[in-house]
Amino acid sequence: MVSPGPHFAILTLLLTVSLAASASLEENFIQCLSFYSDKASPFSGTIYTPKNASFNKILESSAQNLRYLVPSAPKPEFIFTPLTDSHVQVAVTCSKKLGIHLRVRSGGHDYEGLSYVSEVESPFIIVDLSKLRGVEVNIEDNSAWIQAGATIGEVYYRIYEKSSVHGFPAGLCTSLGVGGHITGGAYGSMMRKYGLGADNVLDARLVDANGNILDREAMGEDMFWAIRGGGGASFGILLWWKIKLVPVPQTVTVFTVTRNLEQDATKIVHRWQEVAPYIDDDLFIRVIIQPATIGNKSERTITTSYNAQFLGGADRLLQVMKESFPELGLTRKDCLETSWIKSVLYIAGYPSDTPPEVLLEGKSTFKNYFKAKSDFVREPIPESGLQGLWQRLLEEDSPLMIWNPYGGMMSKFSESDIPFPHRNGTLYKIQYLSLWQDGDKNASKHIDWIRKLYNFMTPYVSKFPREAYVNYRDLDLGINKKNSTSYIQASSWGNMYFKDNFNRLVKIKTKVDPDNVFRHEQSIPPLPVSRMSLQDKKCKTWE
Ligand SMILES: Cc1cc2nc3c(=O)[nH]c(=O)nc-3n(C[C@H](O)[C@H](O)[C@H](O)COP(=O)(O)OP(=O)(O)OC[C@H]3O[C@@H](n4cnc5c(N)ncnc54)[C@H](O)[C@@H]3O)c2cc1C
Ligand SMILES: *[C@@H]1O[C@H](CO)[C@@H](O)[C@H](O)[C@H]1NC(C)=O
Ligand SMILES: *[C@@H]1O[C@H](CO)[C@@H](O)[C@H](O)[C@H]1NC(C)=O
Ligand SMILES: *[C@@H]1O[C@H](CO)[C@@H](O)[C@H](O)[C@H]1NC(C)=O
Ligand SMILES: *[C@@H]1O[C@H](CO)[C@@H](O)[C@H](O)[C@H]1NC(C)=O
Ligand SMILES: *[C@@H]1O[C@H](CO)[C@@H](O)[C@H](O)[C@H]1NC(C)=O
């Protein structure tokens, strides 16, 4: 544990006196930073206000959802880009002291822009961790320390640089920031073999609500449990994760096979639901579903693309497919044998000769205006349901669905091992998206469409609660009201993301951040009765 300084209380007093009421927030923040900062790590050039020419460039840099960059979206007072862990620590201390709401951003992929826009509270600032991207791989120890601002692609690259037979089971999209990604679970093409990124975390370092840096031992097992799946920005600011590397074979096989409605897509997808969650753990076959025009036909059809990674060679893959899923008709020609790192690029959608070094650019390939939702499926959807779904997809301009198979290792963890509860009994997860490029003028049309689709799907998906993936943040499920931290109100979305783990998350939040320093529209609320229960305890001791 590293505390902010020896004479903290006295310094605090002096600082309070010296902060000028007439100065701007940013001037006060700078003054506070210089007051608390260790002189060895200067912070000049780390604060961008709207007056700086590069403000927009920095704001937009990693922001994924263009919906939250439109001119009407609230903008931060300034963006702070820390250069050291202690800068992050001081940012927490100073934002508390000055009463400025703080948002933290690692990779900027939040579906509702929560890392760079605050709709409910102003003024706010962004602490952007993009300059904190260390990755230290230790092959002998099968582990790595990875810093919050690194992308998951950089992590994969640094592992590959040291070994061709080690990997890490996390996201498919390589521009995800590990700070936000792993706090919500982090699934990818090796989830059926090794579970989630969050299932493979050994240790962590974070800045807590008091501005202290804590590792696993210092934070204790409750808080260490909460940060591995409890969602971003509720418990502290993650600085580093220590992750466990997993073995990958020298040869990995990938394929993408597409079938449209005229090629029996409905029957094959129906069959996929029964097969993909139970097939060999080395095989991950996701389905990407969207409307498309084929050849010179004027009408759109539905295309279903089976996009797969197999941890092994093509011969064994073909054997597995022949035994378990002959309906897809996979052939040797469809299969590409490659290395694990190239399979990562393939699944992420890079063109075939892209060198792995592209991962070091940390750039995203996917920026859109979008709205998304998620569901978990526990019983195969009947063909009639699939047909209704196709009909609705054909009514929208640019919809997309991605179905990810569960089973394998995902079923072997209990629902309470980490806060991510979607385990045994889950066949697959659906992600629904509507994408558009023409700004916000038709946004409500697309959002209405996806809400109606979500209603249509009710009978086919998980119930009591209807489950949702916290990393596919969806504010339609409810938001924390600005004037209260009502536990009852938050339990609607809380139970969807975390099931019974929500109660434990609330208890831990109440213990580690009772004043709700780390908050956003869907952060875990502390119980307002915390002080009362402390008093209860006192009474009992007194008795
Ligand atoms: C194109 C795309 C592809 C995706 N693919 C996958 C996938 O394959 N698998 C998967 O599991 N998910 C996927 N996701 C979802 C992704 O995991 C989440 O959006 C995740 O939260 C992104 O983390 P980030 O750091 O990039 O985002 P950010 O927007 O920076 O952060 C997300 C949330 O975490 C908070 N946060 C950020 N940094 C920290 C920190 N250091 N400490 C504490 N809280 C923090 C933010 O305030 C925000 O609330 C995808 C998202 C997109 C847009
Ligand atoms: C932003 O502008 C101010 C005032 O001109 C300057 O002092 C500061 O260094 C600039 N910030 C960055 C990151 O360049
Ligand atoms: C459409 O394509 C088919 C072959 O794919 C061809 O036979 C046919 O003539 C084409 N029709 C038109 C109107 O171009
Ligand atoms: C998963 O649940 C099924 C019953 O629903 C049970 O038969 C099976 O043993 C469970 N698997 C694990 C790994 O717990
Ligand atoms: C988008 O909105 C404009 C103006 O409201 C409308 O004319 C146009 O048809 C819309 N586009 C689509 C694809 O709906
Ligand atoms: C909080 O706000 C809601 C309206 O958004 C209002 O009805 C309620 O009375 C407020 N509660 C408190 C405690 O102020």
UniProtKB/TrEMBL annotation:
Gene3D superfamilies: 3.30.465.10, 3.40.462.20, Uridine Diphospho-n-acetylenolpyruvylglucosamine Reductase, domain 2. Residues 1-22 form the signal peptide. InterPro entries: BBE (IPR012951), FAD-bd_PCMH (IPR016166), FAD-bd_PCMH-like_sf (IPR036318), FAD-bd_PCMH_sub1 (IPR016167), FAD-bd_PCMH_sub2 (IPR016169), Oxid_FAD_bind_N (IPR006094). One of its GO terms (biological process) is cannabinoid biosynthetic process. Residues 72-248 form the FAD-binding PCMH-type domain. SUPFAM superfamilies: FAD-binding/transporter-associated domain-like. Its cofactor is FAD. Belongs to the oxygen-dependent FAD-linked oxidoreductase family. This is FAD-binding PCMH-type domain-containing protein. It comes from Flemingia macrophylla.
